[in-house]
């Protein structure tokens, strides 16, 4: 079934450790996004990529980095995890970043930083 | 400063009745508005969208209304079904990026 795959589905991590959340899509979408969802705050954009080879900062980029080496993969890296990064992380994609293009979401990664 | 606001954290309606979910925004540069539905332990699912140049868009049981002068949009679900019980997010687009509201938990009682 075509869609977005996120891995792992959940993870408990010690503070200070490095962690990469994986995201792969098989829809050949050009644009990809990373969001975090926190209780009472909705979804907030961390980083995005309008096409392979380009990335941009969203609303809450600090402490996170991304890369877009190819169309299908968009990993999110926490270089040194902190407890405030405990959240549910969603990856999304859309055909382009253009008007009316809905974003399709993965099922999320639940990350707990201790 | 929250640019997209969903002021009702929750809403409860009877099966068969109308559900009305509301959303307000402050940024006049938003050019597209979308509604997403989210079940627990799943990612958000796109429901319906509307361009800023329109005032209504309908898709089956779902209708979105946009009032640009009031910077307000609403999602109507008629008739509501128990399977509609979920968190609904309003989102607004500007510069290819989406800004989400905090969500409204809709419960449809049988």
Amount of helix of chain B? under 10%
Distance from first to last alpha carbon of chain B:
38 Å
- How much of the polypeptide of chain B forms β-strand, as a percent range? over 45%
Largest interface: A-B, 27 and 25 residues
Q: Helix count of chain B?
A: 0
Assembly category: heterodimer
Question: In terms of structural class, how would the helical and strand content of chain A be classed?
Answer: mainly beta
Helix content of chain A: under 10%
Order of helices and strands of chain A: EEEEEEEEEEE
Q: What is the structural class of chain B?
A: mainly beta
Residue windows where pLDDT falls under 50 for at least 5 positions of chain B = none
- The overall average pLDDT of chain B, rounded, is 95
Percent of residues in beta strands of chain A = over 45%
Unreliable residue runs of chain A: none
Kindly describe this structure:
The complex is a heterodimer of chains A (114) and B (110). In chain A, 0% of the residues lie in helices and 47% in strands. With 114 residues, chain A is mainly beta. In chain A, strands 2, 4, 5, 6, 9, 10 and 11 form a seven-stranded mixed sheet that branches. A four-stranded antiparallel sheet of chain A has the order 1-3-8-7, with no helix packed on it. Chain A is globular, with a radius of gyration of 13 Å. Chain A starts with a strand and ends with a strand. Chain B is mainly β and 110 residues long. Chain B has strands at 4-5, 10-14, 19-25, 32-38, 45-51, 56-59, 62-67, 72-77, 86-94, 97-100, 104-109. In chain B, strands 2, 4, 5, 9, 10 and 11 form a six-stranded mixed sheet that branches. Chain B is globular and about 40 Å long. Chain A binds chain B through residues 4, 31, 33, 35, 40-45, 48, 50, 58-59, 90, 92, 97-100, 102-108, and chain B through 4, 6, 31-32, 34, 36, 41-46, 49, 51, 89, 91, 93, 96-103.
